[in-house]
Amino acid sequence: MTDAPASTPAPDSPRLASVRLDENDAPWPLRPWIMAAIGALAGLLFHMLVDRQYVAEPAPLLDALAAFIAVSTVVFLLGVEIRRWHWALGFALLWGAVMGLISGYSAGYNLNGSPIEWPFWSGILAVLVATPLFQTRRDVARDWRFWRLWQMPYERLHSHAWTDAVIGAAGLVFVGITFLLVVLIGQMFKLIGIDLIERLLNGEWFGWMLAGAAFGGAVGLLRERDKLVATLQRLVMIVLGVLAPVLAAALALFLLSLLGTGLTPLWDSGFSTAALMMAAAAFAVLLANAVIGNGRDDRSANRFLQIAAAVLVAAVLPLAVIAFYSMHLRVIQYGWTPERIWGVIAAIIALAYGAAGLWSVAKGRRDFDDLLRPLQQKLAIGLMLLALFLALPAMDFGAISTRDQLARLKTGTTKAETFDWAALAFDFGPAGRRALADLAKSPDKARAGLAKWALAAKNRWDLNVPGEAVNAADVTYGAKPIRDKVRVLPAGQRLPPEAYAALDTRGQCKTAPCAAYVLGPDRIVVAGRGNNVVLFARDAKTGEWAEDYEGFRGGAIAEGLTPGELEKAAIEVRPVERRQLFVNGKPLGEDFE
To answer: What is the pTM assigned to this prediction?
Structure first.
């Protein structure tokens, strides 16, 4: 008996094709489930940190922890591979800690401040740029030729940036679809009397867990099939590339038209010229990169699209110049604010890219993209470092703005009546509050009164709208206690302290006297300056006074008339009595019950 030879697969037998873009990345079948679990846990922790009452005191530490959880989780989900997974964990924790520091500082910077301010968005920009840089560095870790970030392979870096964008966007879409599906299922079960799913959805903790699990699971599924995602990414770039000639022609016509019209129409349009120019420049960069691709082999072979990409790149510089000049005029007219400082920085960044793009087009001509790609890589690294530096509490834009605005106030460039006291109190940080305290001691009584009013305000809405005049007499009157501002009628009637507190909160009597007419022990009607009539009622259970929005009749009609009633019921017109506030015999406001 002879032994049969071991069978070997035929040379042409089919093998399972890999769905990973990088052959060095081994399949990770459990990735979607692990990512979903991490996302769900992060969603629950995030909810526990942000689930605070609206009127609760600011908690910068909790805001910092919430930002740490959110940022580190998203960065880890997008950037992790089983190969060198501990690198991704360390990278995510590092950026989570940085963003936590930024958010905590921003939350405590202003009175009633928010953690999501301009430094937060600057930090997010740094994270978005740093993530594909990290992924590329992880992939080429063994090749020490690429130890400098600006020498890393552009093709892989560009691919990571676009793939992250596509996967992130697809993950958000999947979250929306998941919520729609769960709502549908909940409504189906509600029809048969089971409202468990609906009650879960009404709980915010479940919503955050569901969103985290859906996003993590979607990212895990797509990352395991990133070869297919690369195809989708290429399709997106092709579609965006088709739009390049449209925007290129529009920008060329727009810039040529300015030679005849001048820049004056831009300032008279009523829109933010700087924001529009920056948005146009950003779209130009996006569409140009969609055409030129990762490299010469990846760029569009259509000569028409290549010309359009060159026009888009060259148009960035004039757009950035217009944006910068617009910000320059704004600063000259109104002075520095943190928002304008950020705007000028953005315009400078656009100028840098525009100069690099115009140089590459002028020198490279048909092959301008070969010169532009390495410049874009260096600009991206510089942008990441600049965004991180500006996001950290190294520079105090509020202090810079305070010094400039005070100088304008002292020289008379800005009048005290039109000065933005709310910005000094609530937007310029500790430096603004200290400046208000100094101004409150000013020998100029009008200016000192305005400063005291701003310091005493609990929120910016108690002060003037920026640019609107404030009468110094209004400020003096506003400092009076609420009892001295309200005239109570009929004579001899009195208001409880809770009613006065409600009137003070409503702000109807903030800068001018008002009259309160007692309708009964639980209702009053208040008339203020102008045709401003408000009803207040006391809640029978809590005893609290609040505005009664449904107290005015406003032509109320009967509800629920059936066709039978309309055909057979007795219908008549009756005289009705109404109660309405009259001042010197003239009716004021609507009638009420």
So the answer is: 0.78
